[in-house]
Design a protein that fits this description.
Layout: H1 5-81, H2 85-89, H3 100-105, H4 112-123, E1 130-136, E2 162-172, H5 177-188, E3 193-203, E4 206-216
């Protein structure tokens, strides 16, 4: 082998060795860069998620502050209502505030049996008025399990939560004013009642009044604290 061939061979080996080292350095740098990218992405997702949690907490704090402000305003309005002359003059239970009359006028539950008892014992009877028929329809799906029976879902000219009822009362011909007195009792009743139909018939010495109506109620609204999960990644 010529003497000049040995340096050329060593030079080629050095070039190949340098190329291998360069490849190893580039591969190592690529691995490190990939790991850094993954860690950076994971860190970014953590930061965004924690920021979303902070935003939800800030929204909750803002809502609670508004509720406190509204609560104070509501207390002032209740104190004003307790001085209302109409509420003060309305009969109510002992040791109860005048504003309780409003709650009694619009019950929070659909208790058709209590309405029927009130009509039968207090509102329709008296002064010679006789009850011939009284029907109070339970609300389907609320007071009974039979969805196909009870009151209809709509009444002409009436909307909201209501209980339908109908009754027939009668008096003798000489006591016609008793029917007017009975209607006034219904009008002045603390319970919110709306008569949708009234028919008066006279036969010989007997006067009959047939009426249909509705009594309203308003389901109570419950305010409770709940947990709201914050989804990751917007999912």
């Amino acid at each position: 082998m010529p003497a000049t061939a040995a340096p050329a061979l060593r030079k080629r080996q050095q070039i190949e060795k340098a190329g291998k080292n360069m490849f190893l350095w580039v591969a190592g740098a690529a691995v490190i860069l990939g790991m850094c990218a993954v860690l950076a992405l994971s860190l970014f997702e953590r930061i965004m998620y924690r920021q979303a949690v902070i935003n939800e907490k800030s929204t909750t704090v803002s809502t609670l502050r508004k509720n406190i402000e509204v609560g104070e305003s509501l207390k002032k309005e209740i104190r004003v209502l307790n001085t209302n002359s109409a509420l003060l003059e309305t009969p109510r239970l002992n040791d109860t505030e005048p504003v309780s009359v409003i709650l009694d006028a619009l019950p929070s539950t659909a208790n058709s049996s209590a309405l029927g008892a009130s009509l039968q014992q207090n509102l329709l009877t008296g002064n010679g008025v006789s009850i011939e028929a009284l029907t109070v329809n339970p609300i389907p799906g609320v007071e009974n399990l039979d969805e196909g029976s009870g009151s209809s879902s709509e009444v002409s000219g009436v909307s909201g939560n209501y209980i339908e009822f109908s009754f027939t009362v009668s008096v003798t011909g000489g006591e016609a004013n008793a029917l007017q007195t009975m209607l006034r009792r219904l009008e002045r009743s603390i319970r919110t009642i709306n008569l949708t139909s009234v028919i008066v018939e006279r036969q010989d010495a007997k006067i009959t009044l047939k009426a249909s109506g509705v009594a309203y109620y308003q389901p109570a609204i419950e305010a409770t604290l709940q947990e709201k999960p914050v989804p990751k990644g917007g999912n």
